[in-house]
Amino acid sequence: RHFSFTLDAAIILKTIHVMIFGKGR
Q1: CA distance 24 to 3
Q2: pLDDT for 1-25, tens place per residue?
Q3: What sign has the CA pseudo-torsion 20, 21, 22, 23?
Q4: What span, in angstroms and rounded, lies between the C-alpha atoms of 3 and 6?
Q5: Structure confidence at residue 2 (pLDDT)
Q6: Alpha-carbon span 4 to 10, nearest angstrom
Q7: What per-residue confidence (pLDDT) applies to 24?
């Protein structure tokens, strides 16, 4: 479960980062 949570958090953070970068550009 811990690994799954970490993976989910990493994916969410990456998605948010990509979205922010996409909007920034």
Answers
A1: 31
A2: 667 889 999 999 999 999 999 887 6
A3: positive
A4: 5
A5: 67
A6: 10
A7: 73
d(CA 16, CA 11): 9
How far is residue 24's CA from residue 8's CA, in Å, rounded to a whole number?
24
The amino acid that residue 18 corresponds to is V
Instruction: Please report the sign of the dihedral spanned by the C-alpha atoms of residue 22, residue 25, residue 20, residue 10.
Output: positive
pLDDT of residue 10: 95
pLDDT at 1: 61
Q: Residue 5 and residue 25: Cα distance in Å, rounded? A: 30
